[in-house]
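CORE FACILITY INTAKE
Project code: CF-77B
Contact: R.S. (postdoc)
Sample description: multi-component assembly, two entities in total
Requested service: structural model of the whole complex
Turnaround: standard
Below are the sequence entries exactly as provided by the requester. Do not edit them.
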Amino acid sequence: MAPTQFVSAYKQLQQAFSARPSDPKKCASLLASLKIALSELGLLVPMGEASLEDMVMARDVLEIGAFFSIRSRDIPSFDRYYSQLQTYYNDYKCVPYTVLPPSPREYPIRGLYLIRLLTQNRIADFHTTLESLPLAADSLTANPYIQHPVNLERWLMEGSYSKVWKAREEAPAEEYRFFVDSLMETIRNEIASCEEAAYESLPLKDAGTLLFFTSQSELLSFAKQRGWQVNLTAGTITFAKKGEEKIEIPKEKLIAANLALARELEQIV
Amino acid sequence: MADVEMKPVDEEKKAEEGKKEEAKEQSAPPLTPVAEIKANVALIERAVSTLEPRFMHRVLRTLGALRKKLDDSVLREAISEVYTTESPTKKTLLEWLPAAPSADHSMDIDSAPAPKQSQPEPVPESEVYFRLLILHHLLTSQNTYTQAMDLAHETIERTQSLNRRSMDPIAAKVWYAVERTYELSGQLADARPLFLAAQRTASLRHDDETQASLINRLLRSYIQFSLYDQADKLVSKTTFPSSAGNPQFARYHYYLGRIKAVQLNYTAAHTNLQQAIRRAPPAKTAPGFYQAVHKLSVVVDLLMGEIPERSLFRHPVLEKALSGYFEIVKAVRMGSLSQFRSTLSKYASLFEQDRTYTLIVRLRQNVIKTGIRRLSLSYSRISLRDICVKLHLDSEEDAEYIVGKAIRDGVIEGRIVHEKGWMDCGGQKSGYGPEVSDVFARRISYCLELHNQSVKAMRYPLNAHRKELAAAEGAREREKELAKELQEGGDLDDEGPDLGEGF
């Protein structure tokens, strides 16, 4: 059984976390001490047999930690909590191990992780994670926490960026909003690269709407960052032409390939 | 060969397979199961004594067919005929079978006459072979699963403690049976540590057969539980033995294809699945595997933006299994989102069962891309509004983004003219450039590799060159003798050169 001071610290953390507005400093210090306690009790990465209540408590601490690190915008720390929680979510639900009751925070956290992968444009990881969710594939859309990232990914992939823009306010949990900014950054870069390829020039105003900028100065600094030529008098942006670059014939490669071919033929004949 | 049948084949398919095999047997000279087992044991002995694994493989090839003909009395009779003397091995083997009814017993006495007594104890390989047969037999009925589990563990220990290289092919099969045991008793996840440990031992002992079998076992177990991360790590940390048999390679490529497809690496997945198809046994022998690979390969083809050939869906083995996929292919080909959506919901449970649902959902963007490509080919200029209507998109704004993305991804050639609200479609690129030589080089290297591998795969009979050597040796001897005679007999001078030239 867990020592009493651990239990009381856990209770304090729960209070501090659910209080409105929550007390970030107190949460941080409590989390730090609780994590030490967890590792001393061998619950940080659970090995062997621990009692059910202890494990539920440990899981709660980690979950609160995950949410807390998002609130304090500490993404690497969120990643750490997520991978620690993996054991609790994936391994402790079938017979040889202790069966934990499902946590109400499990899917919000999984959903958050999915969004985090999206914002980094790690689409392959996104799909791998999605595939390993313990849900039937056609019920993915029934879970609001999972449905949100799934829809976002679909819109991103097919290019319906305006839908992504509109959906940013419809997040199923408060924490999802923390990712909106970085997500917007991602899609702006996506749109920008599309525009470079698809347009020769664009009126400033339209470019602003396409990129979801509300003020012209934001647009101008973004244009400068990407190296676009802005013509302020005509009010247009001209994109640097690509695609006309000269195609070089890779002589050495061709020669090497032909020589290898000749050698192989020699071997056969 | 039936070894490659995918394990989750449904009953119907199994029955079908069974029928086919029966038909085959009727044409072949009938051989009683007991006689077959005895012949196999003899082959195993030969394999061990000549160190020629070919015979062992021949025995194991019949395993699939033999498995269906086993029952208690067949096994008992075979064991008592092979093990004529009372040995502890015989006793332990017989312990796994229910006691014989007394009528059978008298027959046993008749069929085991005295003259065989002098026969030496069969090699341990035969013992493990019997264990394998008993294990497969125990797995046919639900009541004996626990017994099968015990036997499986004991057999593993036995093979590992014997540590004989001639045992490897059988050991690989034993591992398959072990996995099946765990799966049937619903504890597949628990077998993983066992497999991992055994895999390590096998790779240390350079036991390629077992290693190949175990890697496949592990991959399958990971994929079954959707642990693609772990599966991917296993693949990157191990090297699949190149000497493994085709069935194992086919499986390995299939699992690799699955992992790659999930990770969006469709080109690699496509290559792996092609390999799996090529290495798999003929469609009629292992329909389950053939269907499973093709299902996945159709989806991967679509994800790469290619349309599978029509003839594929007319294949007798595949026609029924792929019907749902055929509908999807049609929808993608038409570029019709509404048709795609309705097909997806209609066959959702089927795709879910095949574990391709999430992959098929990804096709949505391909449907749109195909639609755009069709439009760009048929119009030289089209307004965004029309695109929106034709592709059933939600708004013109979306259409603009989608077309922009399609242009950037290189799906179409063209420009958007924002002020006028239309898309100018550019002409097709001329298909000539350095990439042509790349494609050429790739194809040629494939052909060359195929040639080299088939040369490597040629088999020569062992010691066949000895005869030639002996003949050459003899000729040389004769020549020497002749030269000697020539030297000695100086009076035969004028005939000498003639004789010499004759040789």
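Facility notes:
- Residues 464-488 of chain B form the longest helix (25 residues).
- Strands of chain B lie at 381-383, 414-417, 422-425.
Invoice: internal transfer
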